[in-house]
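Table S2 (text version). Query chain:
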Amino acid sequence: MNKTIILAFLIASTNTFSQKKNFSLEISYPLELSDGNSSGLTGIINSRIKYRFWDTESFSIGTSYSIDLLTGDVTFENKKESFTSHHFNLFGEVPLNSSKTLLSSLGVGYSLQSFFITKSIFGQSGSVVSNTEKDNIGGFNINFGGAYHIFKNFFIQGTFQFMRSYVDDFLLEEKNGFNINRLKFGLGYRF
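Corresponding structure-token output:
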């Protein structure tokens, strides 16, 4: 009961004392639309924090950091993949109506994707050996989307993100690029 009262007080105080709400926190479900070099990725969660350093009546400009968690099965037997993507972006927002309840956004930035492949060798009595390998790939990203404010500070939002990542080809000694497309739907809170 005391925790509920404290939480309600904190939410009310952010509405009362902050004149400009330059931060927002978003929680989304990432849906992989193309699988690049992976197979059958399933989204777990995406979270993003935004800071608007230039906020006017007609547009906002800011920076954001987001993280995606995804998992999937590799086409080979006894292997499991998990992905963590970090996105660092510069974004702009434009209100689409006079009440500023509907916003459009466009962002560009850099993505770093870490993936872990866990291999398991099974024997007669179950799993005998389990080994996890980690690798990182990076590239640029572009995202666009929109948000609709349900209440003063709470909103629903959707984002489409295109990433172009590069991986080293050791045989040809060159970098190969591949595309990743993600669709994200979720909720947000502006404070």
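Notes on Table S2: The beta strands are 23-32, 42-55, 60-73, 79-95, 102-123, 126-149, 154-169, 174-190. The longest helix spans residues 2-17.
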